[in-house]
Design a protein that fits this description.
Layout (H helix, E strand, L loop, with lengths): L4 H19 L6 E6 L2 E7 L2 H4 L6 H13 L8 E6 L3 H9 L4 E6 L24 E4 L3 H15 L1
Helix pairs in contact: 1-5
Length: 152
């Protein structure tokens, strides 16, 4: 499955969420969980604000969707996130049975989809996640670069 107009629209939404994280002094990553082209839940990094190392944008969205649906299995959903997920987040996506992952910027050092690790292809995971990379990669990457440049 290639990149669709819906993918681009939802990634723009995730980028707005990433900007919220940035405004709060967090690493600017945003995520939105979608089912049948409707937003189930959203999240942005809140690690510092929540004093919680697991408060990544993806985890926040997954937790909110689970509560909204009354089920930890988030079947037939797509997660849009502005940065390639880490090991922890890929584990959570697999446990939640998320069908599809779409991400913007690559994370060559910590990305667990197709860079540092390729966990979406790992035989030991109980659920395989379809994935698409590079949706609005440039603006997603630029937001992160500018954030870290301002910090240095």
């Amino acid at each position: 499955m290639g990149i669709t107009e819906q993918d681009v629209a939802w990634m723009r939404y995730a980028l707005r969420l990433a900007q919220r994280a940035e405004q709060q002094g967090e690493v600017p990553v945003g995520a939105v969980l979608v089912k049948n082209n409707d937003c189930l839940a959203e999240g942005w990094n809140r690690v510092i604000q929540d004093h919680d190392p697991t408060a990544h944008a993806e985890i926040i969205a997954i937790r909110a969707a689970g509560l909204a649906l009354g089920n930890y299995r988030l079947l037939d959903t797509t997660l849009y996130v502005t940065l390639e997920p880490c090991v922890m987040c890929i584990g959570a996506l697999s446990q939640a049975r998320i069908k599809r992952l779409v991400f913007g910027a690559d994370d060559p050092k910590r990305g667990a989809v197709c860079h540092a690790l390729s966990l979406c292809e790992a035989d030991f995971l109980n659920h395989k996640i379809e994935w698409q990379k590079g949706v609005l990669a440039e603006p997603c990457s630029e937001l992160l670069k500018q954030f870290f440049k301002a910090r240095r």
